[in-house]
Design brief:
Shape: flat
InterPro entries: DUF5330 (IPR035220)
Low-confidence stretches: none
Helix content: 40-55%
Order of helices and strands: HHHHHHH
Protein name: DUF5330 domain-containing protein
Mean pLDDT: 76
Largest sheet: none
Distance between the termini: 70 Å
Structural class: mainly alpha
């Protein structure tokens, strides 16, 4: 909820400060300057902050409504948690932690998958050398070196 209030505040501030021409206006209906808007906002905040001193009954009713809303939210969260955790008894949790299984697999699921016949490995002679090892190494090649910069200028 506070996220929505903060978002509304910042969007309103940006819209207020954007230099957008809203069309021709009479002098009697001229726009509000940012300083006038800031002053009005400050007086609104001070008025809201003293609301509970002027209307204690309204504040008490609002507080009770918020407490009821909080209790309902906690109970709803508990019900959702129990629904999502349904069927997880302590024995099931212990079984899951020790075996890594929740016991939901059928016998067909546990059967091993088909594996093809084992193929014989090709015979390799112990004196096998790669072709690259039979070729004589070439003489090292000299790489060109960069020329030094002329800094006599």
């Amino acid at each position: 909820m506070f996220f929505l209030l903060r978002t509304a505040f910042w969007i309103g501030l940006v819209i207020l400060l954007l230099p957008i021409d809203t069309g021709s206006q009479d002098d009697a209906t001229a726009g509000v300057s940012p300083w006038q808007a800031l002053s009005a906002a400050q007086s609104t905040v001070s008025d809201i902050s003293s609301f509970c001193t002027r209307n204690p009954n309204a504040c008490e009713t609002g507080g009770q409504a918020l407490r009821t809303f909080g209790a309902k939210a906690r109970e709803s969260a508990r019900l959702v948690y129990e629904y999502l955790d349904e069927g997880a008894s302590p024995e099931t949790l212990d079984n899951t932690l020790t075996t890594g299984s929740t016991g939901t697999l059928t016998a067909d699921d546990l059967a091993p998958q088909w594996v093809g016949p084992a193929l014989p490995l090709p015979a390799v002679s112990p004196s096998f050398e790669p072709e690259a090892a039979k070729v004589a190494p070439e003489a090292p090649v000299a790489l060109p070196q960069p020329k030094p910069l002329n800094r006599s200028a």
